[in-house]
Amino acid sequence: MNELTCIDVVSRAGDYLDSVLDPGEVARVTEHLEGCADCAAYMAQLRTTIDVLARRPGIEVPAPLREAVDGMNAGAGEGGDLRRAFAEHGPRLLALARAIDPGHAEDLVQSTWVQALRQADPDAFELRSLLGTLGDLADRHSVTDVETEQPRRDRATEVSRMEPDPYADPAELFYPDLYQEGPDLGGWIKSPNSWPGPAQILAPDEDVTTTELYGVVDAALDELPPAGAELLSLVDVQGVPSELAIRTLGLDPVTARRELHRARNHVRDRLDKYLARSEAS
């Protein structure tokens, strides 16, 4: 089996970090990283980008929805399973519901918790089960409500239109500092920068730096196409597992994962420029 090139590793980086590659591909990428300092530095950048996004303040659950779920807590058992599950998964469910059907998101989330309570099964409060229930309810709603324009289908169309040119060079799609032609095709033009870790970038006593950094992150998200920004926010900011977010939104997995990787790389590029300027000053 041929060894992976740097382009191969860069194009698989998002799937590698999301643990969606098959074991054979994981082993090949890992082997390449062990022998290529440039790709290892790039992978560290991307991992830090995901970590920085995960620490970005997430979506806030409106008070009426929170109060409605609190009102259901009496039926959740003495252990307060519903309250704990809502605190952990509530923002994720709401973010995904808004992506599926913005006009009825809070109703979908509340109905999801009602269904979970009716099942009388501890597993009903797990994220995977809740997302499945949310998706089922959204499907039923789109069929029965004539005013609903099936936003999930619209999202799928929007993402599918982002399918890159099949004849474009992979290096151009994922990282501009890879040679796109000549004898060094697939190699790095210049080595990726070494970044400090997330704990250093987001030091608790550096409020000004953190505010500036998330200003850069927010500006990068605003520059993305809406579907790409939405996927990135769901997966990396809200913490919805990528395969579940993609499946629940009804998106083509290959196209959606490519767009997610491109969106991450865009944020990574903006962070790289910001950190380089900060270090220079």
CATH topology of the largest domain: Butyryl-CoA Dehydrogenase, subunit A, domain 3
CATH architecture assignment name of the largest domain: Up-down Bundle
| Structural class designation | mainly alpha
User: What is the domain tally?
Assistant: 2
Give the H and E element order: HHHHHHHHHHHHHH
Question: How does the overall form come out from the CA principal axes?
Answer: globular
- The percent of residues in helical segments reads 55-70%
Describe the overall structure.
The protein has 2 domains: 6-56 and 188-280, Butyryl-CoA Dehydrogenase, subunit A, domain 3 (Up-down Bundle); 63-156. The radius of gyration is 21 Å and the shape is globular. 68% of the residues lie in helices and 0% in strands. By secondary structure, the protein is mainly α.
Task: Summarize this structure briefly.
This protein has helices spanning 6-17, 23-35, 37-55, 63-72, 81-100, 105-119, 127-144, 151-160, 170-174, 198-201, 207-223, 226-237, 242-248, 253-280. With 281 residues, the protein is an all-alpha fold.
